[in-house]
User: Which sequence fits this backbone?
C-alpha cells in the first residue's frame, strides 16, 4: 500500500470506528465516494478489526503466548536434535551431553568419514555477531596451535539461526565426572594439572586467555588419560563488555557476565579470579588462578571459595585465605601446597606470572615424587651407619614418630658392598623418607613472595639456628634443643639446620668435611636437595627451611671440624645451581665433577673474604647474618669429637 | 557490595547510548532483558491465561526498578527502558520461534523460506514469525503504529504506558492500535489460509 493510500484508509477507518457500528457503512461510503477500491480497503479493514476483536488477536503479549514453548520441558525436547538427523554434512549419532554452553552430540562427518563432537550453540548466545566473530577467531587460533591438550576444532557452521562447532571427539569423561566418581590419586592430580597448564602455556603464548577453566571444561580421555581442555575462546561469547569501554577497547576491558544467558549455566563464580569476579581487566594470570582452584578441588574434594550465593563466594574470593590443604586432612606434599597457594595469590603480581613457571614447578614435583618412590623402593636402613665418608651423615631416625613409619622394603635392598659410599645416598634416602612422611604432616610455615627487588639485592640477610638431638645407645636422649651458635658436638649428637630470611633469594648449603692433609676437601651439596624445599634453591621472603627436613644429620667417625657453607644470593649462582645434578641416587650429593668442584671452591674462596656481620641472639637462640653486597657467605663450624 | 551486572550507572549509560542511536548498547542490554523475560514467562506459566496485560507492565516496571536499583527513577529513562525492552523481547522471541520451527522441521539440512516454515510449522511460533514480518511492513509504511504494536505486543505495555513512551495521547494509542491490529490481522489471514 502506498503511504498516501495508507493515510487515506487509516483516516476513514479511524473516524468510522468512532461511530456506532450500524452507522459505519454509510459513513465509509460517503467518505470514499466513487473510489470503489478505497471503500473496499476500508471495509475489509473494519471487518478485520471485528474479527480480530472476536479472536482476541494479539491481545495477550507475545511473551504470554510463547511462555509455554519458551520454557516448557516439552519444547526443550522438541528442540533437541534426534538420531539420524542431519546438520550440514553431519549425521547425528547420539547426544553426548549438555555442556555449559549448548548441547553436544556425537555425529558422523559424512564427507570425511570420521566421528566428531558437534556442539550446538544456543541461538541466543550467538546473538551478538561481533562477539561471535571474536570467539571464532580465538577458538580457531587456539585449535591451530596443535597442542595435544587443546581440543581440535574442525569447523564452525551455521544453518539459519543454528550455530554449531564440529570438533575432535574425545572418548572420555570430564574432570567434573571424575571428581564425582572417586578421589583422584596424587600422581593423577599432578598429571592432569600438568596437561591443563601445558595447554594454557601454549594458548597464553598465542595471547589467548581461556577465562573459564573449571572441571567441566577439562576432558580426560579414557584410553590413555590424555587431558583435553575444551572451549578456548568460548568465554568470549558470554562475558559482558564494560559499558564504559569504547567499541575498540572491548577486547581489553572485559567484565564478568551474569549467568543468565539462555541455555547456559555459567552458574558458578567459584573458579573466577579476584580480578575476574570484580569485573576488572583480566590477563593470562586469571587462568592460573582458576587452575589453582581446580587443583585445590582435586586434592581436597572441595573448592577453596564457596558461599551460599555467588555474592558470598565472590567476597570469599576477594578476602578470604583458603584453608590449607593439609588442614583439610588432604595428604599433600608441601611443594604442591606451595604451588597451589602461589596460584591462588589474590594479587596477580604475586601469582605465577606465566603458565610456564607453574608448569616447571609441577614437572619438578612430579619428577621428585617419582624419584622418591624409586628410592623408597630401593632404600635400606643399613645405609645410615654404613658409611666411611668423613662428611656429615643424615640419620634416618627422626623425632617425629610418623617418619619412621615408612620402612624401606626388605626385598629391594641393594647389595651392601655398593652402599658403603656415603652421605649423598643417605641424603637422598632421607629425602624419600622425609617427603613420604611429610605428606600427611607438618604444613609449610611460609608463603611465597615475589622475587627480590633491586633494592633488596644490595644487601643480604640470613638467620639460622640448629636443632640438636642427643642420642644414647642409638636412641633419642632427652628433648631436642635449639642452639644459636656452635658448640662442641658429641659424636652421637644429631643436628638439623634451620634457615630463613626476611628477603627472598637463593640459598645453597654445602658441607665440607674435616680437611685431611694434602687433599682437596670434597664438597657435598646439602641444599638444594630433596630433603628440603623440594629441590629448589629459591627461598621466598620469610620462608623457613629445615635441612634435612624432619630428620637429622649425624656425624661420622671422622673427628674434626665440619663446615656448613651457607650461601645466600640475590641472583641464582650458575655453578651452585649446577651442583644440584649430583643430588641424586647415583652421585650421592658428592660433587664428582672435578672441574665443577674447583669452580665451586673458587666461588667460595672468592666471596668468603667478605665476612658478614654476625649477631647471635641468645634469647631467640638464633644467629643473624647480614652483609651489604648481593652475596652472603658464611661457614658454620661444627666441631665434633 | 559489588554486583557485577546490575550496575545502575551502566544501565543508565546503556540507555543513554541507545537513545543516541548506538545499537551496540542494545546488544549489551540483551542479557539483562532476557533475564526479565524469563521471569515474566515463568509467571505467565503459573497463572491463568487472560487478565495479564497489566501484569506485564507491572513486571517490566518492576524489572526496570530492580535493574537500576533506584526507587526514584526518571520517567525519561523508564520510557527508554520500556522501548528497548520491547525491542529486545521481540528479537528474543523471534529467535526462539525460528529455532523452534527449525527444530520441528527436523534439523533443517537445507534453507527454507519463511513462508514454507509457516506452512510446515503451524502454531504460535509460526504466527509470531509471520506477525514479525508483517509488522516490519507496517513499520515501513507507518513507523508510529508499528512501534505501538511492538511496545504492546512484544513489550507487553498497556496503552497508558505506550502513550508515555511515545509522548502521544492515550486515545491516539488506542486508535493506532486498532488500525494496526486490524491491518495485521488482515495480512496474516491473507498469507495463511
Assistant:
Amino acid at each position: 500500500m502506498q503511504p498516501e493510500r495508507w493515510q487515506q484508509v487509516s483516516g476513514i477507518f479511524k473516524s468510522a470506528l468512532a461511530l456506532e457500528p450500524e452507522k459505519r457503512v454509510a459513513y465509509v461510503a460517503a467518505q470514499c465516494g466513487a473510489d470503489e477500491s478505497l471503500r473496499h480497503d476500508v471495509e475489509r479493514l473494519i471487518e478485520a478489526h471485528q474479527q480480530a476483536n472476536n479472536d482476541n488477536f494479539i491481545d495477550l503479549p507475545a511473551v504470554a503466548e510463547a511462555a509455554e514453548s519458551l520454557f516448557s520441558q516439552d519444547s526443550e525436547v522438541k528442540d533437541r536434535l534426534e538420531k539420524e538427523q542431519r546438520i550440514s554434512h553431519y549425521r547425528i549419532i547420539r547426544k553426548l551431553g549438555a555442556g555449559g554452553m549448548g548441547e553436544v552430540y556425537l555425529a558422523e562427518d559424512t564427507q570425511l568419514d570420521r566421528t566428531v563432537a558437534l556442539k550446538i550453540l544456543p541461538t541466543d548466545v550467538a546473538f551478538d555477531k561481533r562477539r561471535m566473530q571474536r570467539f571464532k577467531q580465538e577458538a580457531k587460533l587456539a585449535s591451530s596451535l596443535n597442542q595435544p591438550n587443546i581440543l581440535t576444532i574442525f569447523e564452525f557452521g551455521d544453518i539459519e539461526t543454528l550455530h554449531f562447532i564440529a570438533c575432535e571427539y574425545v572418548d572420555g569423561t570430564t574432570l567434573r565426572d571424575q571428581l564425582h566418581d572417586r578421589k583422584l590419586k596424587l600422581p593423577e592430580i599432578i598429571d592432569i594439572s600438568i596437561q591443563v597448564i601445558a595447554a594454557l602455556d601454549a594458548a597464553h603464548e598465542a595471547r589467548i586467555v581461556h577465562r573459564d577453566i573449571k572441571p567441566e571444561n577439562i576432558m580426560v580421555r579414557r584410553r590413555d588419560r590424555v587431558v583435553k581442555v575444551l572451549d578456548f575462546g568460548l568465554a568470549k561469547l558470554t562475558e559482558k563488555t564494560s559499558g564504559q569501554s569504547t567499541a575498540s577497547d572491548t577486547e581489553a576491558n572485559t567484565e564478568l557476565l551474569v549467568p543468565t544467558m539462555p541455555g547456559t549455566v555459567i552458574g558458578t563464580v567459584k573458579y573466577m579470579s579476584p580480578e575476574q569476579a570484580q569485573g576488572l581487566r583480566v590477563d593470562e594470570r586469571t587462568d592460573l588462578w582458576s587452575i589453582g582452584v581446580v587443583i585445590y578441588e582435586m586434592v581436597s574434594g572441595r573448592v577453596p571459595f564457596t558461599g551460599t550465593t555467588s555474592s558470598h563466594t565472590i567476597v570469599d574470593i576477594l578476602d578470604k585465605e583458603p584453608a590449607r590443604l593439609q588442614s583439610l586432612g588432604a595428604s599433600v606434599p608441601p611443594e604442591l601446597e606451595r604451588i597451589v597457594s602461589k596460584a591462588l595469590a589474590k594479587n596477580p603480581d604475586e601469582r605465577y606470572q606465566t603458565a610456564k613457571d607453574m608448569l616447571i614447578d609441577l614437572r619438578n614435583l612430579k619428577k621428585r615424587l617419582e624419584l622418591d618412590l624409586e628410592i623408597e623402593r630401593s632404600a635400606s636402613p643399613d645405609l645410615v651407619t654404613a658409611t666411611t665418608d668423613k662428611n656429615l651423615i643424615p640419620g634416618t631416625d627422626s623425632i617425629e614418630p610418623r617418619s619412621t613409619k615408612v620402612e624401606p622394603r626388605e626385598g629391594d635392598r641393594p647389595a651392601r658392598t655398593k652402599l658403603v659410599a656415603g652421605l649423598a645416598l643417605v641424603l637422598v634416602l632421607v629425602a624419600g623418607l622425609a617427603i613420604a612422611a611429610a605428606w600427611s604432616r607438618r604444613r609449610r610455615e611460609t608463603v611465597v613472595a615475589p622475587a627480590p627487588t633491586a633494592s633488596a639485592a644490595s644487601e643480604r640477610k640470613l638467620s639460622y639456628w640448629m636443632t640438636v638431638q642427643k642420642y644414647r645407645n642409638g636412641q633419642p636422649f632427652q628433648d631436642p634443643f635449639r642452639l644459636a651458635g656452635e658448640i662442641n658436638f658429641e659424636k652421637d649428637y644429631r643436628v638439623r639446620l634451620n634457615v630463613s630470611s626476611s628477603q627472598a633469594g637463593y640459598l645453597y648449603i654445602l658441607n665440607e668435611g674435616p680437611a685431611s692433609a694434602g687433599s682437596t676437601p670434597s664438597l657435598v651439596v646439602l641444599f638444594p636437595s630433596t630433603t628440603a624445599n623440594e629441590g629448589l634453591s629459591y627461598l621466598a621472603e620469610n620462608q623457613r627451611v629445615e635441612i634435612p627436613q624432619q630428620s637429622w644429620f649425624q656425624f661420622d667417625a671422622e673427628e674434626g671440624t665440619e663446615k656448613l657453607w651457607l650461601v645466600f644470593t640475590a641472583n641464582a649462582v650458575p655453578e651452585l645451581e649446577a651442583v644440584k645434578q649430583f643430588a641424586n641416587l647415583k652421585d650421592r650429593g658428592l660433587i664428582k665433577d672435578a672441574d665443577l668442584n674447583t669452580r665451586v671452591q673458587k666461588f667460595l674462596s672468592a666471596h668468603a673474604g667478605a665476612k658478614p656481620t654476625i649477631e647471635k641472639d641468645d634469647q631467640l637462640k638464633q644467629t643473624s647474618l647480614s652483609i651489604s653486597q648481593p652475596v652472603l657467605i658464611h661457614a658454620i663450624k661444627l666441631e665434633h669429637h | 557490595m559489588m554486583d557485577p551486572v546490575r550496575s545502575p550507572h551502566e544501565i543508565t549509560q546503556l540507555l543513554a547510548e541507545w537513545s543516541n542511536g548506538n545499537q551496540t548498547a542494545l546488544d549489551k542490554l540483551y542479557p539483562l532483558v532476557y533475564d526479565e523475560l524469563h521471569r515474566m514467562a515463568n509467571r505467565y506459566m503459573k497463572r491463568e491465561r487472560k487478565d495479564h496485560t497489566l501484569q506485564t507492565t507491572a513486571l517490566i516496571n518492576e524489572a526496570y526498578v530492580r535493574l537500576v536499583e533506584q526507587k526514584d527513577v526518571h520517567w525519561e529513562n523508564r520510557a527508554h527502558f520500556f522501548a528497548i525492552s520491547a525491542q529486545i523481547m521481540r528479537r528474543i522471541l523471534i529467535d526462539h520461534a525460528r529455532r523452534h520451527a527449525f527444530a520441528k522441521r527436523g534439523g533443517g539440512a537445507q534453507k527454507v523460506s519463511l513462508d514454507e516454515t509457516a506452512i510446515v510449522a503451524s502454531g504460535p511460533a509460526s504466527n509470531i514469525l509471520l506477525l514479525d514480518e508483517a509488522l516490519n511492513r507496517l513499520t515501513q509504511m507507518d513507523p508510529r503504529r508499528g512501534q505501538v504494536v511492538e511496545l504492546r505486543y512484544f513489550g507487553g505495555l498497556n496503552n497508558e504506558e505506550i502513550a508515555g513512551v511515545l509522548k502521544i495521547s492515550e486515545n491516539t494509542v488506542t486508535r493506532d492500535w486498532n488500525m494496526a491490529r486490524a491491518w495485521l490481522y488482515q495480512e496474516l489471514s491473507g498469507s495463511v489460509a
